[in-house]
Design goal:
Layout (H helix, E strand, L loop, with lengths): L10 E2 L14 H9 L26 E10 L12 E3 L5 H9 L3 E4 L13 E12 L2 E8 L6 H13 L5 H10 L14 E7 L6
Helix pairs in contact: 2-3
């Protein structure tokens, strides 16, 4: 069982997986044994024993995603696997103002689709944007995320940052709870699931 699923091409540095097995050695020995059989792009970072009724998805109280955009005249082949290349400068203050609208409990139907008919209302605990050298890092922490929600938010924010969408238009689209009002989705490779939080566990 996993804390969540991601779109193809999205990365995860903080995914949480739970399973049941018989094991008589240490947790460290189990981690080493499993990592020796995993492909190069997957590695277990920590293992801890939990109660039998623990569920990594339903027991989570928040999830955090990071989206990376690097701004440069030409693409960087080394970073291109993990960040979205953008050639022109973005108005970070305008993007930050748009992000502030998302804080709190809202219907995020404009930015994503619920699974299995679930509610599209989510609690956005934190939303921030910072510049790190030539990169723009957008971090979102919420009680949960709809399908493609982060990528849709980022793509729409970039429309704000490049002046294609005003703050008033962003707010109107958000309040409309209409999927067709979202901007284009950002590509998946810039997105990383970085953290899943639980009440009684620390990873």
């Amino acid at each position: 069982m996993a804390a969540g699923r991601t779109d193809s091409g999205v990365h995860a540095s903080g995914q949480v997986i739970a399973w049941t097995m018989d094991w008589t050695h240490s947790e460290l020995a189990l981690m080493r044994a499993l990592n020796s059989h995993l492909p190069p792009d997957i590695a277990i970072q920590a293992i801890q024993t939990v109660d039998a009724d623990f569920h990594p998805r339903y027991d989570a109280i928040s999830r955090t995603y990071l989206y990376r955009i690097y701004i440069a005249p030409s693409r960087d082949p080394i970073r291109n696997r993990f960040a979205w290349h953008w050639q022109q400068m973005l108005d970070l203050e305008a993007m930050r103002s748009a992000l502030a609208m998302l804080i709190g409990v809202h219907d995020f139907a404009t930015f994503g689709q619920a699974t299995q008919g679930d509610s599209t209302t989510r609690h956005m605990f934190a939303a921030d944007i910072v510049q790190v050298d030539d990169e723009v890092h957008i971090t979102l922490t919420a009680s949960g995320f709809l399908q493609r929600m982060v990528r849709s938010i980022v793509g729409t924010l970039v429309d704000v940052g490049r002046g294609k969408m005003s703050l008033q238009a962003f707010e109107a689209a958000f309040r409309a709870t209409d999927r067709s009002r979202s901007g284009p989705s950002a590509p998946p490779h810039g997105l990383i699931l970085t953290n899943v939080m639980y009440r009684n566990l620390a990873f």
